[in-house]
Write a structure and sequence with these properties.
Elements lengths: L6 E4 L14 E4 L1 H10 L6 H9 L5
Length: about 60
């Protein structure tokens, strides 16, 4: 996945600190998140690595 890839997700719950009280779409920089997780894989717990692996994470 390219680093600049973003996903727009619909918030199920209102995020804490939101002033307008509205849910609505939330932009997630998924490519950046994946890149960061891969770079920090050695610092993840075994449980977290297993959870990501079960979701199909390619290291």
């Amino acid at each position: 996945m390219p680093r600049k890839h973003v996903e727009e997700l619909e918030a199920v719950e209102v995020p804490t600190g939101r002033q307008d009280g509205a849910g609505g779409p939330v932009v997630v920089k998924l490519g950046t998140w994946l890149d960061n997780v891969r770079k920090r894989a050695d610092r993840l717990s075994a449980e977290r690595r297993a959870e990501l692996g079960a979701l199909g994470m390619r290291w």
